[in-house]
Design brief:
Chain lengths: 203, 205
């Protein structure tokens, strides 16, 4: 059971089986929320928490959930945590909630969450499932943050609203629109795959 | 273990009930905070529209209560602010955005010939695109903007925010034409409403 060691799971979810680079899951939100770093940060923290707690809950309830309604129950659990995140943001971080608009609710449709619940939490213990959820979410977070840093610098000339490029620098309008995330993710996948193949050749 | 149909139905009902109960409890607990946030957003919006600077939530509440008078007109609320002897009038106005309703605070002068200011109270437009209507760089275009004889402000696509406050024009946000057009429609609706309300209250006097 070497594959279920916490470090091995973390490495798999962050790198070798990264949800975005390798599994190409959760791409819709990767295009939509990566135009500013702050939006991406809050949204991906939401995804990390929802994936972790969904995995934990699915793992705790797995022996009770009837097979026939398994996926509906998983969706219910995901929706529960997403609405929870939405309510908490509205109450405690109203400005962020306002700027994320409809995207928080759309975490429900993120394939990574149900993918991990189905592939991992159904067959493993609660603690390790929670860890798997958190690291899967972190793998998603890492890539989206990278994309958002590139987009915010080139699109607005700022990072987290702080000006980085001089006022005279020409900002790229395309970086503000979703297609730019397609190009950036494409280039990132290309780079990551090249690094991985080189490592494989060496070993 | 294979589970029978009765178990499946019972399980589904119980688990749905429990999760919904949990959400209702959290929603009810945070309700006072959410309502306070809504009240605060309206107050901050009105203060910004009237051009009254504030720092922090507490000051926004106290300044609003001190400086702004509320008057009921045809079931709507008219907000009145006196600056250096001149009265300015504000209303809360909502309209259709690209994704959801946009709510703004709009303030004009007594003769409805110039906008005092516009602030966005609530919106769910695309983050980073239409959502940018909240930024002061965009809303400052409306500040002290002259309202032409046709009582309309126009949204134009000139690629840079409009700094001429006499031409009755504001520049739209690149990549968010729908939201930019909606904003101007909402502001124009607000101007018409204020014209109507102020015309009536002047006649009464």
């Amino acid at each position: 059971m070497n594959n279920n060691k916490p470090m091995a799971i973390a490495k798999k979810n962050l790198w070798t089986e990264n949800p975005i680079f390798i599994q190409v899951l959760g791409i819709c939100s990767a295009l939509a929320v990566t135009n500013t770093v702050l939006n991406t940060l809050i949204m991906t923290i939401g995804v990390v928490l929802v994936t972790g707690f969904t995995n934990l809950t699915v793992s705790l309830l797995k022996s009770l959930i009837p097979k026939k309604v398994r996926m509906i129950v998983q969706t219910l659990i995901i929706a529960f945590y997403v609405i929870m995140v939405d309510i908490i943001l509205r109450a405690y971080l109203p400005d962020i909630s306002k700027s994320l608009g409809p995207y928080v609710g759309l975490i429900i449709t993120n394939c990574i969450i149900m993918g991990r619940a189905e592939a991992f939490a159904q067959g493993n213990g609660p603690i390790i499932s929670f860890w798997d959820g958190i690291t899967s979410g972190a793998g998603y977070m890492l890539v989206l943050l990278l994309v958002s840093v590139i987009r915010e610098i080139l699109g607005f000339g700022t990072i987290l609203g702080i000006r980085i490029l001089p006022d005279t620098a020409v900002t790229w309008t395309i970086m503000l629109t979703p297609p730019s995330a397609f190009f950036i993710i494409g280039f990132l996948i290309w780079a990551v795959k090249t690094i991985m193949q080189r490592k494989e050749k060496k070993s | 273990m294979k589970k029978g149909i009765i178990y499946t139905v019972l399980f589904s009902v119980i688990i749905s009930f429990l999760f919904v109960l949990g959400l209702t409890a959290v929603n009810e607990t945070t309700k006072p905070l959410t309502e306070r946030n809504a009240r605060l957003a309206l107050r901050k919006g009105m203060l910004t529209a009237f051009g009254i600077p504030y720092s922090g939530d507490a000051e926004a509440f106290s300044l609003f209560d001190d400086k702004i008078i509320q008057k009921s007109v045809q079931g709507d609320t008219l907000y009145i602010y006196n600056e250096n002897g001149s009265d300015y009038y504000g209303i809360r106005i909502s309209g259709k955005g690209l994704w959801n309703t946009i709510t703004c605070a709009l303030a004009v002068d007594q003769t409805v010939s110039r906008i005092k200011g516009v602030a966005v109270i609530n919106q769910s437009e695309t983050p980073g695109l239409g959502g940018r209507i909240e930024e002061t760089a965009y809303t400052d275009q409306f500040r002290n903007e002259a309202i032409g004889p046709d009582m309309k402000i126009k949204s134009v696509q000139q690629g840079a925010y409009d700094t001429d406050h006499e031409n009755g024009q504001v520049d739209g946000i690149t990549g968010a034409t729908g939201t930019s057009t909606s904003m101007v429609v909402i502001v124009n609706d607000g101007i018409m409403l204020l014209k109507k309300y102020l015309g009536e209250s002047n006649e009464q006097q």
